[in-house]
Amino acid sequence: MITVEQNDTISKVRCSTKKDVEAFLKKHQLSTPLPQVEWSPELLACDDGIGVYFNPEEGQEMMTSFDNVLHGFQKQGRDLSEDEAEIIRQFLYADAISPQFVRKLVQDYGDASIAAAFLIPQDYDTYYLEYLIRRYKGHFYRNRYPSLSIVDA
User: Fold this and answer.
1) Res 1: pLDDT
2) Cβ-contact 82, 104 below 8 angstroms
3) No. of helices (H) and no. of strands (E), the chain
4) What sign does the dihedral 35-28-148-93 (CA atoms) show?
5) What gap in Å lies between CA 17 and CA 27, rounded to an integer?
6) Alpha helices in 1-144 (DSSP H)
7) Which H or E element spans position 58?
8) Which of 4, 21, 45, 67 could pair with 49 in a Cys bridge, judged by C-beta atoms 3.0 to 4.6 Å apart?
9) Residue 150: helix, strand or coil by DSSP?
10) How far is residue 82's CA from residue 85's CA, in Å, rounded to a whole number?
11) 31 and 44: one domain?
């Protein structure tokens, strides 16, 4: 089994012996070293890109039609079509997309396409981005409690 660990500047590859892998499987009562993952048919049938972001606080976030979002961000706010502007707005409106996912795309591609999608002049300060994130992602900043169900047995 080979695993790759990412650091800021260096990738390390660590190899495990077959004996180590077997001991790990036995310790954790696993039948295979690969995770058992079930993907929905809609996700597997998506042909226009899937965006996956792992948020340590929220878990894994996935979005279909992600190629359109990336294409809009890559334009850096210049010549956005109405469809590209709408998909960027939908990206910010989506309840399942965390502020960290939005910030990651802004870090990689800049915020000019968000400004253009929301018709904000380019010469404005970047405070608008925090406003939009709080406006549409505010539920991520509130206290959230686990859902509980009481079942009589």
Assistant:
1) 45
2) no
3) 7, 4
4) negative
5) 15
6) 18-27, 41-44, 66-74, 82-93, 99-109, 112-117, 127-137
7) none
8) 67
9) coil
10) 5
11) no
Percent of all residues in the chain with a pLDDT value above 70, rounded to a whole number: 87
Task: DSSP letter for 120, please.
Answer: -
Residues 64 and 14 in one domain: no
73-124 residue pLDDT tens: 888 888 888 888 888 888 899 888 888 888 888 888 888 888 888 888 877 7
Q: What is the pLDDT of residue 118?
A: 84
Whether 99 and 122 map to the same domain: the answer is yes
Contact 87, 124 (CB under 8 A): no
Give the tens place of pLDDT for each residue, 10-23. 444 456 788 888 88
The verdict on residue 108 lying in a domain is yes
Residue 31, both tokens: 């039948």
Closest CA to 66 of 91, 93, 100, 37: 91
Q: What pLDDT is stored for residue 4 in this prediction? A: 45
Q: Does 114 map to a domain?
A: yes
Q: Could you tell me which residue, 6 or 67, shows the higher pLDDT?
A: 67
DSSP 8-state assignment for residue 89: H
Examine the domain organization and report whether 74 and 16 are in the same domain: no
